[in-house]
């Protein structure tokens, strides 16, 4: 005899009345014991009640696996009350990981063929919830038959089950193609909406289905036109918008059918213009329809005027009071900025206003779009807006804003002075948030602008005198004072107000940097080197500088101690060489967008030079004779001997003039990775002055429909090589050919060993995390020999 147990309602009340977690567990354990006993005794009358209580326990998070077989027994029962609870238990307790789910295949098949609509509905719901690939293959013919049943209730559930089957087993597409065309003529709202969803799944997973359903584009256009003009039925209207759910599904399907297909796109162009102009935007339902219309216009081969209309709709979205709508508009405009730059540019003032949003996600999107809108014609105005935003933006956006301003300034700077002023403003405002290469880029920029040396050193001195907390600014200022301290003391700069500075003030400021607790070891190194260089640029006595240098000979920091020891040795033993050693730094070659432009111009010049007439045969033979003469003089060596500085070596100099080494041939680029539109290319440069050094530029592009976020590229090389990874230009690659990410690898290969590269890529794409690890063994021979 089974001990009396609680009813479901009493069980719920007792569990809710438990004051502690221990009391709740005690009630559940006691009731589960009754349920187990009832299952063992095989009570068929109350089995569905016991299982219902067990399902409630399962929903609370307690184990209920021992009820799986009872679900199968209830499904096989002829009573509807048993089947209802049994199918519900199967949906909750069974999934593909349990082999028991295969045991209900025959029961579902029998129930689908019985003709009882409620039972068929239960079976279809269960199959669409937990049906595995094996079950879908076995039961696909039964579901296909139900698609043409006269009952709308059964057909609607059969369509949704077919959607689940297509997602599980895309090979079943051919089974459901014929019924779909017939179902498009239905007037029942649920059947038509389900059919559009089913066709969408078929087109996304089967090229044959995509080609097949392009024939029904006119029919879909007519259905949507009817919805827009006359409406479907008042009961499906929301806020005055006729059936927005059906409109959105049809627009998504039209987007898939019109993508990369000119004829289908032309068929739907007029309709899209009608939807875009006639939809009410005062309600959220209308905004949803308009947004899907914009996405469809941008994905198909639409007319230019229609694309401008779509961008203007997104511009109106930016003025909406709903933050979600504004965020969607910013994200969509960011995707379109590359393909429709001029149309998006018209909404630049509204985008800039969005920078002041209190919502962090909105201001971040507005920042990304503002940086993407910067070009050579508006760079001055946009930089003013972005610099004003940098002063007041949240701390988590400062790094992105500062990096974006520096990259845009480097790419579109109208003058070098404007470029220097922009970088100095960023360093002064958010110096601690800039990228690691900002210091090197600014020093290279100042070093290459000889006419601005005096202006730059005075600006940096003034900035350093006001604030020494911004470490990148202090480093650049110390470097510049050390290089051009003589120009600072002359005070003949016409660009800024006259400022009289004496030697003691400059030395005191650098000593203040050295002694400050805010200074990093690298910053102290810059300051100590600046003091050492000023010893050759100042006219006074160097005793003060020598005393400071000698103090740091016992510094705990090894790098700073080494510098101090070397500088002190230079004072004591090699003072006669100090002026030559500490002379001004030569111009260093730059890497970046401007350097790429210069390289491109030099490449074009080289191509023009190749078009020049070749030397005549006699000239070539004379040159070969000279080379042969040098070869005979040097034996079998492959390289000519070192030049003799004696007068007798003048002939060698004379013979060496015509045979200057030709410029090295460019190393071809290499594509090493491609997946779902994400592509990674390598470009190579070997500086002629340092053949052992190889510069590899990694370029990541994205031609897919989804943004690539959190992009990280890591590399490794054999132990005989040295690898240095520079900071990437960003971590997001916008969709549809947006601004790529670039990153520089510096590889030192003094032994010219065969080069192998192992890369690891991690990024998020289409809301999925992707990690790829692969080895590149086919690098060009020119990159290491």
TrEMBL record:
<feature type="domain" description="GAE">
    <location>
        <begin position="665"/>
        <end position="780"/>
    </location>
</feature>
<keyword id="KW-0968">Cytoplasmic vesicle</keyword>
<keyword id="KW-0472">Membrane</keyword>
<dbReference type="InterPro" id="IPR008152">
    <property type="entry name" value="Clathrin_a/b/g-adaptin_app_Ig"/>
</dbReference>
<dbReference type="InterPro" id="IPR011989">
    <property type="entry name" value="ARM-like"/>
</dbReference>
<keyword id="KW-0333">Golgi apparatus</keyword>
<dbReference type="InterPro" id="IPR002553">
    <property type="entry name" value="Clathrin/coatomer_adapt-like_N"/>
</dbReference>
<dbReference type="Pfam" id="PF01602">
    <property type="entry name" value="Adaptin_N"/>
</dbReference>
<dbReference type="GO" id="GO:0016192">
    <property type="term" value="P:vesicle-mediated transport"/>
</dbReference>
<dbReference type="InterPro" id="IPR016024">
    <property type="entry name" value="ARM-type_fold"/>
</dbReference>
<dbReference type="InterPro" id="IPR008153">
    <property type="entry name" value="GAE_dom"/>
</dbReference>
<protein>
    <recommendedName>
        <fullName>AP-1 complex subunit gamma</fullName>
    </recommendedName>
</protein>
<dbReference type="InterPro" id="IPR017107">
    <property type="entry name" value="AP1_complex_gsu"/>
</dbReference>
<dbReference type="InterPro" id="IPR050840">
    <property type="entry name" value="Adaptor_Complx_Large_Subunit"/>
</dbReference>
<dbReference type="GO" id="GO:0045202">
    <property type="term" value="C:synapse"/>
</dbReference>
<dbReference type="Pfam" id="PF02883">
    <property type="entry name" value="Alpha_adaptinC2"/>
</dbReference>
<comment type="similarity">
    <text>Belongs to the adaptor complexes large subunit family.</text>
</comment>
<feature type="compositionally biased region" description="Basic and acidic residues">
    <location>
        <begin position="592"/>
        <end position="603"/>
    </location>
</feature>
<feature type="region of interest" description="Disordered">
    <location>
        <begin position="592"/>
        <end position="617"/>
    </location>
</feature>
<dbReference type="GO" id="GO:0030121">
    <property type="term" value="C:AP-1 adaptor complex"/>
</dbReference>
<keyword id="KW-0653">Protein transport</keyword>
<dbReference type="InterPro" id="IPR013041">
    <property type="entry name" value="Clathrin_app_Ig-like_sf"/>
</dbReference>
<keyword id="KW-0813">Transport</keyword>
<dbReference type="GO" id="GO:0006886">
    <property type="term" value="P:intracellular protein transport"/>
</dbReference>
